[in-house]
Amino acid sequence: MKKFSKEEKSWALYDWGSSAYSIIITTAVFPIYYKASATEAGVSLSDSTAYLGYTIAIFTFILAMIGPILGTIADYQGMKKKFFTAFFLLGTISTALLAFVPSENWLLMLICYVFAALGATGANLFYDAFIVDVTTEKRMNSVSAFGYGLGYIGSTIPFILSIAIILLAQNGVLPISATAASRIAFLITAVWWACFSLPMFRHVKQIHYIEREPNPVHQSFKRLGKTIKEIRQYRALFLFLIAYFFYIDGVGTIISLSTAYGTDLGLSATNLLIVLFVTQVVAAPFAILYGRLANRFTGKKMLYVGICVYIVVCIYAFFLETITDFWILAMLVATSQGGIQALSRSYFGKLVPKENSNEFFGFYNIFGKFAAITGPLLVAVTSQVTGNSSMGVFSLVILFVFGLIVLSRVPEPKPHEPVDKVAVE
Q1: What is the pLDDT of residue 185?
Q2: Residue 34 half-sphere exposure, CB side, CA atoms within 13 Å?
Q3: pLDDT beyond 70 at 371
Q4: HSE-CB for 384 with a 13 A CA cutoff
Q5: What is the pLDDT of residues 65-118, one digit of tens each?
Q6: Residue pLDDT, tens place only, 226-271
Q7: Per-residue three-class SS string for the chain
């Protein structure tokens, strides 16, 4: 921590807080809670997994549509923090509201989940864009990886607390039901997320911006239109976005549907939670390691490594049968999950013009979110057509292979050159 500035640490601590949402709501407790509720209501395993996939596609489509527009407006002085705050409040409040949805109403549960996910992913759009305001281009790999590392470490604390409450309730040690214990986990997530976001609000400021103009919304649409027309001139940036579209699709889909997939294979909720906890612990040092290795071997080469690991994950998932297999799969994901996301963020941060960071991170978001529509839909449709969730996961190999091919065409950013010059080469 000592080698990072106050602004860098405050920025990274948001990951420490918000990652509780990622593990408890996106990956672990909520999907298991939802699957149990849907099953109790008579929904088949394959259909409930498909409905979750469709839900993820819906909220990612909404955010993909509004992301570039809001990002362009947020480039004006003082606007980035306001948009970040609005999505942060939507996410934390909706997450807390999940605790009050009747357990038998799985449809209302998914609707509330849409708003929570919109808030979380929307806040992350502006959080990611703040990286150009808190650090230098030379330090981006390390700072981005540091954020993901803190996120994995920090999220384990509320995760352990949530697991402990759920297991104690299931074994009759606590005088509450397992349903009530899961609801407490949702409240813990919201509180943890909110508390560790305070340094971000206090110390992180928008350094790079565009001066405000009359009719800012109209001007933002004009700038957005101009960027769309000229984006092909940013060769490295444009190619990277295409590559990112494919490989991050597979990454996000595996994260979002991992517990639902494990449930379909017959793994118990207890085993799933333990595996996910260990995955978080292992992922933390590997995320930081990716950042260090990127400084030595370049971020692009380390992205190659991460994509190849995920190709192996998808192939191995096709043959998954036992809890041991699931452990092996989870550990493979843990080695690259944080690293591939952290280096994607810093790689893109080096390519974008700093004063237009929100606008360009809006495109980063739209490519990532539109990708997140196709992945869950691909898994959902394949699972329903074949009646086999393993085939759905295996189909994601296509996305990683395409991503790897396009990434090989992306020029490596040249160090110590102006960002605009790097972006247009």
Answers
A1: 94
A2: 30
A3: no
A4: 14
A5: 777 777 777 777 778 899 899 999 999 999 999 999 888 888 898 999 989 998
A6: 766 766 677 788 889 889 988 988 887 777 667 666 776 677 777 7
A7: CCCCCHHHHHHHHHHHHHHHHHHHHHHCHHHHHHHHHHHHCCCCHHHHHHHHHHHHHHHHHHHHHHHHHHHHHHCECCHHHHHHHHHHHHHHHHHHHHHHCCCCCHHHHHHHHHHHHHHHHHHHHHHHHCHHHHCCHHHHHHHHHHHHHHHHHHHHHHHHHHHHHHHHHHCCCCCCCHHHHHHHHHHHHHHHHHHCCHHHHHHCCCCCCECCCCCHHHHHHHHHHHHHHHHHHCHHHHHHHHHHHHHHHHHHHHHHHHHHHHHHCCCCHHHHHHHHHHHHHHHHHHHHHHHHHHHHHCHHHHHHHHHHHHHHHHHHHHCCCCHHHHHHHHHHHHHHHHHHHHHHHHHHHHHCCHHHHHHHHHHHHHHHHHHHHHHHHHHHHHHHHHCCHHHHHHCCHHHHHHHHHHHCCCCCCCCCCCHHHHHHC
165-208 confidence digits (pLDDT tens): 988 988 888 888 888 999 999 999 999 999 999 999 999 998 87
Angle between helices 45-74 and 235-264 (to 10 degrees): 150
- Which of 279, 51, 36 shows the shortest CA–CA distance to 159? 279
Q: What integer pLDDT is reported at residue 401 of this predicted model?
A: 92
| Averaged pLDDT for residues 5-31 | 90
